[in-house]
Amino acid sequence: MASVPSLASTVQQRLADALSAALPEAGSADPLLRRSDRADFQANGILALAKQLKGNPRELAAKVVGALAAGDLLQEIEVSGPGFLNITVTDRAIVETLAARAADDRLGVPYNEQAGTTVIDYAQPNVAKEMHVGHLRSAVIGAAMVEILEFTGEKVVRRHHIGDWGTQFGMLIQYLVEHPHELDHDKGETVSGEEAMSSLGRLYKASRTLFDSDEEFKARARDRVVALQAGDPETLARWQQFVDESKIYFYSVFGKLDMEIHDADVVGESGYNDMLNDTCRFLEESGVAVRSEGALCVFFDDVLGPDGKPTPLIVQKSNGGFGYAATDLSAIRDRVQNLGADTLLYVVDARQALHFRMVFETARRAGWLNDRVKAVQLAFGTVLGKDGKPFKTREGETVRLVDLLDEAVEHATEVVREKDTRGELTEEEIAERGTQVGVGAIKYADLSTSATRDYRFDLDQMVSLNGDTSVYLQYAYARIQSIKRRAGATGPAAHPELALAPAERALALHLDRFSETIAEVAAAYEPHKLAAYLYQLASHLTKFYDQCQVLSDANPPEVVENRLFLIDLTARTLHQGMALLGIRTPERL
Ligand code: ARG
């Protein structure tokens, strides 16, 4: 495992050295290097420097150029415009850098030296309720952030903060107590996720009907809430039945999403019950929270209701009940003090932004968050239908996640079948690829737009072979694998002595930016920038194919090997990048 400095960072360093040699009075100025279309890189830093030193920028630039040592790295440097530097690196430096990447399992991507511990709160559905598209976003974005952060060396603790507590359980449990066999399954029988959900759904409806029509049942349901909170054993056992049944359902949906969820990481709201009293006592004693009309509240100068009066965060209701906020505050204490987190990341719907702002600020006032421990909401927008309105079924209900997944897989399977014009795939292979393409399409659509933005759910577009889709990337990967198979005994080998064609250079320079992309994406929690990087990589590959034949008899053997080397590294980069996004790259499509 050797981290490989990118060409950009090597050039940047070279320029910085030349700058301080040529202009010692400038101190350690930043040459401000960036990728450029005119040359490989452009440095703009000398302009600002000239202003500061009151010199002529073009003259200063010429001085810096003079101080650059000739060598294997730089092909050409010219002073252009008011005093920019246009820099072209040698083909040799490009191929050698990529060869060093290829020799490393991690493609030369360094570990973050400042890595710490991040607790990620994601994939948090609610017990006894259907999962919807919002839960999909949290799961998909959260899982990608887990993989990306772990890849950079961060220690990541996963937390699925499922909604498994609250007054609605009084009604459900009371119904189950009065109809004790509703959730029973025959011994030894495995229950599918759909079966689990449909028995929960039936139970929910039946108990709701009774609750709304029968005053006496309503009263018994209220008493049941009290018994639940008091920890009455029979009540707890019934509650546990709901949780277990729901987990069967959750795990089956996550399985469909091709995502692993581990039992130990599922710590729902109920997991913090023992801490709630202490949390409130501490907040009240420290004066962070105050009693107001019987409730324990935290006030904020900048959070006002429509009436202009401050809207508090309610930590404990006047009847003594605890809500969502008390649980979240207790979870912060647990994650910081027991799990040793220095970052708390919450992948939650943007509509909960005010809740988290108030919770984080309260935790800061209480000292649970501070300069060394930060909390961030990775907020995501709403999933919209084709019509641009919040995604609903024709009947106006929120769309069930499972239906979406099934539909996407069905659709993708058709695409795979049509594409297989020569009938080379077995039915089984078509089904397997259909699943990988369909699930990939849903994930990619979610990950390729900035999380904060709402996005339109459009299946046709998502499984389209052209454009910014996962299928396009999967085909790019499979096509490379197919060329490698056809190359037979000729394997990839780097030849730094060869001159590169423009399309080869463009592809290669983009490959070299993988490390920097990962670092940026991890630091800013922006998986869509990884998706954009991979899409650009596939686009460079398409241009490369247009302009450069790989397996052609007209090519000398070393050109074939060098091109195989370039596309092989492209395939590995695509595979690694897609894996970080949770998307499979089938070997054949
Ligand atoms: N279960 C909640 C929902 O479905 C999301 C939980 C988010 N996490 C948290 N720590 N509050 O909306």
From TrEMBL:
InterPro entries: aa-tRNA-synth_I_CS, Arg-tRNA-ligase, Arg-tRNA-synth_N, Arg-tRNA-synth_N_sf, ArgRS_core, DALR_anticod-bd, Rossmann-like_a/b/a_fold, tRNAsynth_Ia_anticodon-bd. It catalyses: tRNA(Arg) + L-arginine + ATP = L-arginyl-tRNA(Arg) + AMP + diphosphate. It is found in: Cytoplasm. A motif ('HIGH' region) lies at residues 125-135. It comes from the Bacteria. Its main location: cytoplasm. It is an enzyme of class 6 (ligase). It comes from Streptomyces albipurpureus. Its EC number is 6.1.1.19. This is Arginine--tRNA ligase.
